[in-house]
Specification:
single chain; mainly alpha
Length: 70
């Protein structure tokens, strides 16, 4: 029967190594780009997005007082 403690320690060491590698990879690929720049263009030419923006604008306008300048 294998030594469970040794196996567990080995497995934990391996997990820690993989976690370190992932964190290093993430820090190298993540630039100082603001989040909004990294998603710019995500919804380009998307009819559903355009419709959502139209409905949102309509809703916000419906909340304005009727005598407010537009």
């Amino acid at each position: 029967m294998p030594n469970t403690t040794s196996t567990l320690e080995e497995r934990l060491t391996e997990v820690e190594k993989k976690l370190d590698a992932l964190l290093t990879q993430k820090s190298q690929t993540t630039k100082s780009i603001p989040w909004w720049e990294s998603i710019a263009g995500t919804f380009a030419n998307n009819a559903d997005y355009d419709e959502a923006m139209k409905l949102g604008k309509s809703y916000r306008e419906s909340l304005r007082p009727k005598d407010a300048p537009q």
